[in-house]
Design brief:
The chain is mostly beta strands. Helices cover 0% and strands 55% of the residues. The chain has one domain.
Length: 84
Amino acid sequence: MNTVQIGSRKCLLSSPSVPHSLPLSSYTGTYHHAAYQNITVSLCNGTLVADLRHRASPVRLTFTHFSGESFLVQDRPTPSSHLG
C-alpha cells in the first residue's frame, strides 16, 4: 500500500497504481455540479488544478492521480493578496 499525506492525516492508497487511460490534458474543461456550479479544470506545470478565486472562500484545488480514473483532490487556501 502507498500512503499520501492529507493535512495531518495519512491515507492508504491501493498499490500498485493503475495508470490513467487518457493524457492529463483530456481531463481539462468546465464541469458543472449542482452545489459547486461551474468548475474549470486546467493543466498547470503538469498538474490538474481548479482555481476558485471567485468564491466566497477562495481556494485552489489540485488533483493528484492515484489509480485509474481516480484523483485525490486537495484544496489550497488562496490568500486574498493573490486574488488580483
